[in-house]
C-alpha cells in the first residue's frame, strides 16, 4: 500500500447490514493489526450510520486484544443517541466472535462559536529534514532486523522527524517529539469524513514511541514490549492533506509499565486541526 487512494480503499468497509461492516487488514511491519487502521475503520463504520450533515468531533477507544492480520474484522455500530446538535455512536470490533476493540464517537452539526488555539511550535520545516526512508538507507546495515523491516515496509505516509534520534546511539532524549507527516500521492480534495479517517489512521504511528524517548539508553525497538491501551482524538479543523502536517507530541508520565502521551496536530500554516492522547504498555521484554 503506497498511495492515499489505496489507504482510502482499505478504510472503505464492506456492508454486511445497516449496522455491521467488514474491514480487511494491511501489513505495516508489525506482527499484529496496526491500531490506527482499527481506529480509522471503526470511525468509517460509525460515519456510515450518522446523518451526512454531522461530523465527528471526538472519539475515545480501547484496544482489548491484538488483531490477527490474517482475519477480517467485523465492526458493529450501536446508535446511542440522536440529539438536536449531537449524535453518538459506539463501535465494537470483533475477530472470531471476540471483541478486540471498542470505541465511542460523537458527531455534531457544524456550528459557530468562540475561537482560540495554542500556537504551533517553532520547528524546522520538512524540506530541511531527512525522512524515515533516508534513515533506513543510511543506517540499514546496522539496525535490528525488526526495526529495518518496519522502516522498509511500504506505507501511504512519509515521515520526517524534527528531532533526529541516531538509532546507533543510545542516549536519553527529551519528553517532546515533533514529526512531519505527509500522505503520499493524494489525488483530489476529499470530504471531511474521509479526512477524519485518514488522520485517525496516521494518529497512532509515532505517539507511543514518544514515551520511550526519555529512556532511550535502555529502552528501544528490540527489547521493549509496546502496545496501545487506549486512544482518543479530538477533531477541530479541516486538515490539508496535500501538504505536510506536524504531529507535536510529548509524554508527561511513565509509570506502572505504562506510558502516557499527547499530541497536537497542525497544518503547515499553524492551524490546530486535532489533538490526540494515548496510554500504552511499555515494559522490558522478559
| Class inferred from helices and paired strands | alpha+beta
Number of domains: 1
Termini gap: 33 Å
Write out the CATH superfamily name: Acyl-CoA thioesterase, double hotdog domain
**Major sheet details:** 12 strands, antiparallel
Number of helices: 5
Weakly predicted, low-confidence segments: none
| Radius of gyration using CA atoms only | 18 Å
What's the rounded overall pLDDT mean?
91
CATH class: Mainly Beta
Named CATH architecture? Beta Barrel
CATH topology: Porin
Helix-strand topology string: HEEHEEEEHHEEHEEEE
Shape by Cα distribution:
globular
Oligomer: single chain
Helix/strand layout:
Elements lengths: L3 H8 L2 E2 L4 E4 L11 H13 L6 E10 L9 E10 L3 E10 L2 E12 L22 H8 L5 H8 L4 E5 L14 E8 L8 H11 L21 E12 L9 E11 L2 E10 L4 E13 L2
Helix pairs in contact: 2-5
Enzyme class: hydrolase
Subunit structure: Homotetramer.
Catalytic activity: a fatty acyl-CoA + H2O = a fatty acid + CoA + H(+)
Characterize the structure shown:
α2 (35-47) packs antiparallel against α5 (192-202). The chain has one domain (4-110, 123-284): Porin (Beta Barrel). Helix content is 17%, strand content 37%. It has five helices and twelve strands. It has 286 residues and is α+β, with helices and mostly antiparallel strands. A twelve-stranded antiparallel beta sheet has the order 1-2-4-5-6-3-9-12-11-10-8-7, with helices on one face. It catalyses: a fatty acyl-CoA + H2O = a fatty acid + CoA + H(+). Pfam families: 4HBT_3, Acyl_CoA_thio. This is Acyl-CoA thioesterase 2. Its EC number is 3.1.2.20.
Amino acid at each position: 500500500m503506497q498511495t492515499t487512494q489505496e489507504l482510502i480503499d482499505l478504510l472503505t468497509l464492506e456492508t454486511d447490514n445497516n449496522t455491521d461492516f467488514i474491514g480487511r487488514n494491511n501489513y505495516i511491519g508489525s506482527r499484529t493489526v496496526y491500531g490506527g487502521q482499527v481506529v480509522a475503520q471503526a470511525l468509517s463504520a460509525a460515519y456510515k450510520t450518522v446523518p451526512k450533515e454531522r461530523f465527528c468531533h471526538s472519539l475515545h477507544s480501547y484496544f482489548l486484544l491484538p488483531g490477527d492480520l490474517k482475519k477480517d474484522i467485523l465492526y458493529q455500530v450501536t446508535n446511542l443517541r440522536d440529539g438536536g446538535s449531537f449524535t453518538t455512536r459506539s463501535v465494537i470490533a470483533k475477530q472470531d466472535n471476540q471483541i478486540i476493540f471498542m470505541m465511542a464517537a460523537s458527531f455534531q452539526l457544524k456550528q459557530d462559536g468562540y475561537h482560540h488555539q495554542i500556537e504551533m511550535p517553532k520547528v524546522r520545516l520538512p524540506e530541511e529534514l531527512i525522512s524515515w526512508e533516508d534513515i533506513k538507507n543510511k543506517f540499514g546495515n546496522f539496525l535490528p532486523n525488526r526495526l529495518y523491516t518496519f522502516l522498509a515496509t511500504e506505507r501511504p505516509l512519509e515521515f520526517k522527524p524534527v528531532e533526529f534520534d541516531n538509532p546507533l546511539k543510545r542516549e536519553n532524549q527529551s519528553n517532546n517529539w515533533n514529526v512531519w507527516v505527509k500522505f503520499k500521492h493524494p489525488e483530489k480534495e476529499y470530504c471531511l469524513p474521509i479526512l477524519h479517517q485518514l488522520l485517525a489512521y496516521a494518529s497512532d504511528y509515532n505517539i507511543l514511541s514518544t514515551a520511550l524517548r526519555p529512556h532511550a539508553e535502555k529502552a528501544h525497538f528490540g527489547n521493549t514490549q509496546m502496545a496501545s491501551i487506549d486512544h482518543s482524538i479530538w477533531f477541530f479543523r479541516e486538515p490539508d492533506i496535500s501538504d505536510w502536517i506536524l504531529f507535536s507530541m510529548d509524554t508527561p508520565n511513565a509509570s506502572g509499565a505504562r506510558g502516557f502521551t499527547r499530541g497536537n496536530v497542525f497544518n503547515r500554516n499553524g492551524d490546530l486541526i486535532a489533538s490526540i492522547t494515548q496510554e500504552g504498555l511499555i515494559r522490558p521484554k522478559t
